[in-house]
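Dear support,

I submitted the protein below through the web form. The confirmation email said the job was done, but the results page showed an empty box. After a refresh the structure appeared. I'm attaching both so you can tell me whether what I see now is the final result or a partial one.
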Amino acid sequence: MNRQKSFENQKPTLFVVATPIGNLNEMTYRAIQVLKDVDYIAAEDTRNTVKLLNHFDISTKLVSHHEHNLMTAIPKIVHDLKNGLNIALVSDAGYPAISDPGYELVKEVIKEGMNVVPISGANACLDALVVSGIAPQPFLFYGFLDRNDKNKKKELEKLKKYQETIVFYEAPHRIKKTLKLMYDILGNRSIALCRELTKKHEEINRGTIEEILSVIDDMKGEMVIVVEGSHEEFQDQPLVFEQSIVEHVEEYIEKGMSTKDAIKEVAKERKLSKNIVYNEYHKN
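What the results page shows now:
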């Protein structure tokens, strides 16, 4: 168990800082202050983050923390935290660890017993969800589907039964193909396609997948897709066995199992309670 009282201890802290997803005015006062106060900032792309820091007159040192240098960056950051430094983690936009680097570092810092504190801010998933006009709860944040079409189809097949609203991220060059696969697998559901959220060319398109596909060709920018959940009732197919419960138990006994273990194994395979199998076996 890990119990963290963020403001009641003197442990070094990793601050997970959300940054604007487009509009710089979304940067919070608290985020600015934290970025000024920490010993250094670990950034997904220092070239992008330096623009943000310059805008808010923040002169804190920057280091790189991205998916390609995790093996060296994480031990260094953990070492510095252990030596009493406070560090901020930022991604290019939005929250670190949400479809961006960060999870592995957070997990390691928690393991080492130090503080991990969130600094609230912009998030494209929630922005899209609350303006979609689609039921906001319960919802499932899925993020990016696999880039490979075969794998993407498998993912959508698994998701087609979900009754929760589902939120996806997608790149502009893949959006049309992804929507076509959604149409084929999920059906012509209601969706909201949000692009360039909080930016000058922000656009929110609400309608069926078929309707959105008819206008998708002229859309650019990072996309968030909010998809309504399934309205179909899916029932699990009943398990069918050629042998009776008694024959099934006796098969395991013949293989050397005790009667007790055989009953337990049959109950597990048939997804029945052990009492049902026990009573069926012993009723004769």
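Response: this is the final, complete result; the empty box was a page-load delay. Residues 125-227 form a domain with the Methyltransferase, Cobalt-precorrin-4 Transmethylase; Domain 2 fold (CATH 3.30.950.10).
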